User: Fold this.
Amino acid sequence: MAYVVAALVLVGLMSALNLLLVVGVVRRLREHSAELAALRSGGTAADAGALSSFGEVALRDGSPVGAFTAVAVEGEPVTLGTFGDRPLVGFFSPGCAPCEEQLPAFVEFAANRPGDRDTRLAVVVGAGEETAETVERLSPVATVVVEPDGGPVQQAFGVTGFPAFILVSDGLVAASHYQLHALADRDAAALPAAG
Assistant:
């Protein structure tokens, strides 16, 4: 009889411990869900609570951009020096819902930004026919490069997620973000000083 009581007490303690762990996991999942919802709705990570590096998709502000060489869809060679003093760079991936949401805003912003399409670089990460529509939409406003995931331009900018938008000034990241509006505000503030 003593063994049965001991076994029941042990099972009860294990059940209580399991319940505490499940409550902790559920709480953490709710926090992550709130953070993702804030990020998808255009909010910031701070809106959902403190985050460390969650949401970073490219090199941080002030980081040097790595050297790269690529070929634009028109066939010309592309390096960072090709784009002047303060280029705008956007990274997109076909089939990425946030990329599709941000693409029209990028096209409009790029078209209205001072300078011609040679001051803007759009990188489409993918291959073949899947990239054709995105390339077609970006070509009128930017020099477009198509490369596979982990390609040289993506590595040079430290891109880990899509979409990613970067402003460069003198070879350094002036601003980077996954939401174009955050970058556009910083660009508008800096352009008069740069002009």
Observations:
- The beta strands are 70-71, 77-78, 88-92, 120-125, 143-147, 164-169, 172-177.
- Residues 83 and 118 are 6 Å apart (CA to CA).
- The longest strand covers residues 120-125.
